[in-house]
């Protein structure tokens, strides 16, 4: 588990360095050239870096072992970091919307197009940063799945929104180059929609953890359990946790004439076997019940 936390933190530090590089490049040239869309994209990238910092702090807390007050450990702090990233995305979207709307209102009142300078450097900055972000999404998604990390996968979605934003900015730069200066703030609004969509995806993942949604399919688990030697049936299969740490409990039916010790051995062996069947399954609490008519009816209802 310690190796997992170190692996996630290492990825976050690496991505943080790349995000800062990308953000500085886009925001600085956005200010120099007067491009609202490019500057907004740079601000969005700064939220990526801020999200990395929040995630690093959360991972430090999540790495702490279980204690008296937190018997299940501190793994949900990772989900808190994901929620923080979602909130930062919403704030970034608001920043983009306010800037774009202000430019459009100014145009509607005065009829003066926003002044945007589009040069070869503008395209070069956006294309280079686009390439970096594509690499970041690929790398972070791959490592997030391998490490079972909610926060890395949430951060990858955050950066994926950067890619769509950057593509939109490139379109606006082309339109501005051909004399459609008003395209810059309009594209900025589409950028905001992309950011909000990314936030929604992040919040969906957070909801799964905080609402204790089933992490494992009960029907699939039941098939495995009833095929285990000594188990005649099961019910009340429940699972919860994060993407990497899952806790499960269930009731199993055994021959009512066996001893308590024999029932314990079946439950112990089943727990060990199930933890080997499902990656990330940390423990299974198994209630041993007699295989009688009452318990059998509950098993059928599961």
Q: What is the count of structural domains?
A: 2
Bin the helical content: over 70%
CATH hierarchy: architecture of the largest domain: Up-down Bundle
Q: Strand sequence of the main sheet, in spatial order?
A: 1-2-3
Structural class: mainly alpha
Low-confidence stretches: none
Question: In a nutshell, what does this entry contain?
Answer:
It contains 9 helices and 3 strands, in the order αααααααββαβα. With 302 residues, it is mostly helical.
Topology of this structure?
Blueprint: H1 2-33, H2 36-62, H3 77-110, H4 120-147, H5 150-177, H6 183-210, H7 218-226, E1 233-241, E2 246-254, H8 260-277, E3 281-290, H9 293-301
Parallel strand pairs: 2-3
Antiparallel strand pairs: 1-2
What do you see in this structure?
This protein has 302 residues and is mainly alpha-helical. It folds into two domains: 2-210, Alpha-lytic protease prodomain-like (Up-down Bundle), CATH 1.20.1510.10; 218-301, 2-Layer Sandwich (Alpha-Beta Plaits), CATH 3.30.70.1350. It has nine helices and three strands. The chain is elongated, with a radius of gyration of 26 Å. The two termini are 33 Å apart. The mean pLDDT is 79.
Task: Provide keyphrases for this structure.
mainly alpha; Alpha-Beta Plaits; 9 helices; three-stranded mixed sheet; 302 residues
